[in-house]
Task: structure prediction
Amino acid sequence: MIFYICLINEYLMPGRASILVIGASGQIGTELILELRKQFGSARIIASDIKVPGYEVLEGGPFEILDVLDKVRLDEIVRNFNIKEVYMLAALLSATAEQNQAYAWKLNVEGLFNVLHLAREKRISKIFWPSSIAVFGPDTPKDKTPQKCIMNPATIYGISKLTGERWCEYYFMKYRVDSRSIRYPGLVGYKSAPGGGTTDYAVQIFYEAIRKKKYICYLKKDTVLPMMYMPDAIRGTIELMNAKFEKIKIRSSYNFSGMSFSPDTLAAEIKKHLPAFECLYSPDHRQQYADSWPRSINDTSARKEWGWKAEYNIKTMTSDMLENLMN
Result:
């Protein structure tokens, strides 16, 4: 309680517009908070989550306990910190959501709705909400999946994300809510633990390669999926939010692409640095989720409309991951 009061006294600045990140303890939130604070100053970036984040996020600026489903608490934080922008990251990811379907729907959809409602009331001016390649399904074109195509998601996570896209577009058309979104591919990063997604093998494999020189992958060796290194994802997210209003033509969610690879391709790249590394394969229930998703993404709209361009490929990502995890 004493620590909480200190944070309020140090960071509460009436009249100064702030940015709220909901889900700041997650894989994306941890790195997004650090970059936002670097760019905009620690006092302006309010981290929030239902659990306490790591030391770097907690000590680097204001943090508030928040369950996004608690509308009273959300309203209180928006009012107290004069929040004008919200990054709404709280969600249950694909594999985890299948184990708790009712709660996944509630968190992933109603949480977004609570934030959209504040924007409709003009309490906040801009929202970022992440969608996912999970919105695509078994009838979606697998290669260079276009921005607009058949979308019949096969998971609770994908269904909730597609629903969220429709809500974002509806609120823009009806109430002019400035909501912005990208369909994240699988994300690879070293600053936080994976959050329960099907593509998390691409993070876990690095830890196991270093610790045990062996990894047992839960996907088939030739399962190609769209992926992205976290520094690209964070940079792209902030670039989208900083883009001028008139440049954002898509109000559902933008296709967002980095690279595509399979587990055996990634394992071979790691083996170049750690020759003793061995990757084995034992596909489980997550294989069916991966099989319903694209192999590659066409992100032409994001490139043309707000200048998106990935910087990392599998080679540079692997080198950077290993360097950071081993030092």
